[in-house]
Amino acid sequence: MQPIASYQLGGGRSVSLGNSALVYDTQRSRWTSVMLGANYRAGRDVGRHKWRPNVEVDYDFRNVSGNQEWVLRAGIALLLPR
Q1: Quick one: which of 45, 37, 47, 49 has its CA closest to 73?
Q2: CA 48 to mean position of chain CA atoms
Q3: What is the distance between the alpha carbons of residues 67 and 48, in angstroms, rounded to a whole number?
């Protein structure tokens, strides 16, 4: 399951649940990942182009061997057409 939620803050900014995912192993009857996170995005005009930088932090509450406990992501997207 992947929960999806997003809230628009105005001014081109938003927060969302990021890459949150809930993974259940039906053969072993256990949760293998309970990853919840938050993502912040903000649109910016730079010159003649619109950019959307973002930063995200995720935490896996079910730290099973092989899973990363903390994940930090950052990125930037060029929005086309202007």
Answers
A1: 37
A2: 28
A3: 41
Record the tokens describing residue 9, joined without a space: 């803050």
Provide the 10 A C-beta neighbour count for residue 58: 20
Q: What is the pTM of this model?
A: 0.75
Residues 18-33 have a mean pLDDT of 88
* Contacting residues for 43 by C-beta, under 8 A, at least 6 apart: 11, 12, 13, 50, 51, 52, 79
Confidence band, pLDDT 50/70/90 cuts, at residue 62: confident
- Kindly write down the DSSP assignment for every residue of 17-29, as one continuous string: -TT-EEEEETTTT
Calculate the CA 40 to chain-centre distance: 8
Tokens matching residue 16: 């969302």
CA angle 47, 50, 58 (to 5 degrees): 130
